[in-house]
Amino acid sequence: MRRGAIFKAGVSVVLATTLLAGCSTQNADGKVDASLADRGISRPGFKGSFLPQGKFQITPTYGITYVDMILIAGAVALVYQIVDPTAPNWDILEKRLPNRRVQYSLRMQMVHIGGEGEARQILARRAAELAREEGMTGYQIQSYSESIDSRIFLPRRTAEAEVIMVAPVKTAPVIEARPPLASL
Fold it and tell me: Given its phi and psi angles, is residue 77 left (phi above 0), alpha (psi -120 to 50 degrees) or beta?
């Protein structure tokens, strides 16, 4: 499991705990307690929430309650779930075509932090990496275009490119020159 997936699972648990922080059980009419008391069972007193009472003193005059700390952590976790600063800003779709051609489609994330002008650099980095993997000497960008996918909510930047991988040049085998024949 990826480190990011484990972290997001932990954030989801904190978020669920935060949402449950407001939940509590109240026995307003006392029917359950009366029914249990008739049977000789006493229920331990539970008043309010399962969260700890008290506060964390930051300075002698200012403190923050534990409930508020959990609510703040939940709000931060929710923001992190929506805007993940460690996630890449661009999704790359790579389609290999015949004759050493590769078509790239890049789409920017809907919610992102920066990275608007880096599509060309990402394309160059990925094409160079593919050329190395395939044993090619390099690549040539045949076509490149950027646009904005207009939507009502959250438009996205897109980029399309077609790249040709440059094959290594095959050289003829080197034939060593022989000395001329001795004349008679």
Answer: alpha
Give the global pTM. Answer: 0.52
Are 94 and 161 in the same domain? Answer: yes
pLDDT in tens, 133-172: 988 889 999 999 999 888 777 788 899 999 999 988 776 6
Whether residue 172 lies inside any domain: the answer is no
Spatial separation of the C-alpha atoms in residues 36 and 97, rounded to whole Å: 75
Dig out the tokens for 86 from the structure: 């460690």
| 111-143 per-position pLDDT tens digit | 776 677 788 999 999 999 999 998 888 999 999
Q: How far apart (Å, rounded) are the C-alpha atoms in residues 116 and 157?
A: 8
Model pLDDT, residue 154: 76
Strand order in the sheet with 90-97: 90-97, 101-108, 156-166, 138-149
> Burial code of 12-29, b = ≥16 C-beta within 10 A, e = fewer?
eebbeebeebeeeeeeee
Which of 59, 82, 105 is the last residue before a domain boundary? Answer: 82
Question: Do 161 and 100 lie in a common domain?
Answer: yes
Range of the domain at 62: 3-82
